[in-house]
Amino acid sequence: MTTVGIPGGRDVTASLDRPAADTVVVACPPHPQYGGSRSDSRLNAVSDAMAPDIGCLRFDYGPWDEGRGERADAENALAWASEQTDAVGLFGYSFGAAVALRTAAEIDGDAGPAVLSVLAPPAGLTEHLDATAALDAIDCPVQVVVGERDDTVDWKPVVDRAAELGHAVERLPADHHFVGQRGRIAETVGPFLRDHL
């Protein structure tokens, strides 16, 4: 693991697992005001699933900015990873899932992700993080994974729209936090990301 600073004008630090890899997944953490960080267990599960040959860039958001700055952090992390490697995937959990969806919708072309997987995405948090509407603007393969017992966020609109668009939808027997489900997250998300990178 290597610690890197993500350029872009905000104080963003990231951990790059397997820095020699020529393919990387950028992982967006959950809500920073509720303890979300690059060390989140769900992000680590996805990073472990990428071993041994795909890197994982897990970053911390800069100062809280109502979703605008956090989305900029993800865009900057994706741009940095795109410049460093041959192919980039994108993953996000909870708040980070909304950030990842909006980021994938805003960035296209060579700088955009080759694949996107989101875990427990809220339908929308702020005007800057409308995850459901973002799906219409994403042109890479998308996987939406939800816990069937998740009553923390309103994920149903995201699942419904993803299904309408023909994206992969996975329902796991879990709540929002996927407690004790690290292996199941890796087994569900890892192969999807690998197959499209």
Automatic annotation (TrEMBL):
GO terms for molecular function: hydrolase activity. The keyword Hydrolase applies. It comes from the Archaea. Keywords: Hydrolase. This is Alpha/beta hydrolase. It comes from Haloarcula rubripromontorii.
